[in-house]
Design brief:
Layout: H1 11-16, H2 19-30, E1 37-38, E2 46-49, E3 59-63, E4 71-77, E5 80-87, H3 90-101, H4 106-112, H5 120-125, H6 129-145, H7 151-161, H8 164-167, E6 170-174, E7 177-181, E8 190-195, E9 202-205, E10 212-216, H9 219-228
Antiparallel strand pairs: 1-2, 2-3, 3-4, 4-5, 6-7, 7-8, 8-9, 9-10
Helix pairs in contact: 2-3, 3-4, 6-7, 7-9
């Protein structure tokens, strides 16, 4: 061996004949049920592990380091990122993949693969769209509370939250503009948007970057105008994305 050559950081991949084969061989060695599929765009460094839960996307498993050993794992469902993590241990990857494959909850996954992490929104997703909407509103109100130099934004968030027809929608922000979606996953189905003023008026728009529909002097007036532009049959936000529905 050439003394100037660095050792292969992924020797088990070469021994098994590839990334997918290495994942499945390690799973068999651990006594776990796992089926992996190569990523057609990068079959040598990326694979997918499907789940028995139909709404879950396949778990993505990727080789990140070329000179040093590092794997990345990431999984989502219906337009929401659920779980992710970094590890140098192939056993960790396989345990996470096997748990995802059989439909384990996020807490169960982290118990079996502690390198994984998830946030409040991801955990809410397991309880349904109403829980996701409620979680997102809590996060938005916390964000507004941390922006004392922009009281108009905080006033808008609170006024929108007080309105039942907006509170049932998934709220998101883009450059301080509040958008309201009838689905909880990204890409969103925007129903209405409100732009807080910067020394001027609140502006109501169909989309965050579209033309103004109305203008108002106060957050409460802007919210009332926004509601007047909503579809009459609009109900609570549902799971999924605008692309898939």
């Amino acid at each position: 061996m050439n003394p100037d050559m660095k050792p292969d950081p992924y020797p088990e991949l070469a021994a098994a004949g590839g990334f997918v084969a290495a994942l499945e061989r390690e799973a068999a060695r651990l006594g776990l049920d796992l089926t992996a599929r190569p990523n057609a765009a990068a079959p040598r460094t990326s694979a997918y592990i499907p789940s028995v839960v139909a709404e879950r996307d396949p778990l993505g498993v990727h080789i990140i380091g070329s000179e040093s050993r590092l794997f990345r794992v990431e999984g989502g469902s219906q337009g929401i990122s659920l779980v992710s993590g970094w590890t140098s241990d192939l056993q960790d990857v396989v345990r996470a993949g096997a748990a995802w494959s059989r439909g384990a909850s996020l807490r169960e996954m982290r118990a079996e693969a502690p390198f994984l992490s998830y946030d409040e929104l991801a955990e809410a997703h397991e309880c349904g769209p109403a829980a996701v909407v409620e979680s997102q509103w809590r996060a938005m109100r916390r964000q507004a509370a941390k922006a004392p130099d922009f009281p108009e934004f905080a006033a808008l968030v609170e006024a929108a939250h007080a309105e039942p027809r907006l509170r049932q929608l998934y709220v998101f922000s883009s450059h301080w503009t509040l958008g309201f979606s009838s689905c909880t996953g990204c890409p969103f189905r925007g129903e209405i948007a409100i732009v807080p003023p910067v020394g001027a008026l609140y502006r109501v728009r169909r989309r965050p970057m579209s033309e103004n529909l109305d203008e108002a002097a106060t957050a409460e007036e802007a919210v009332a105008l926004a509601v007047s532009h909503l579809r009459a049959d609009l109900g609570p936000a549902i799971s999924g994305t605008a692309r898939r529905d």
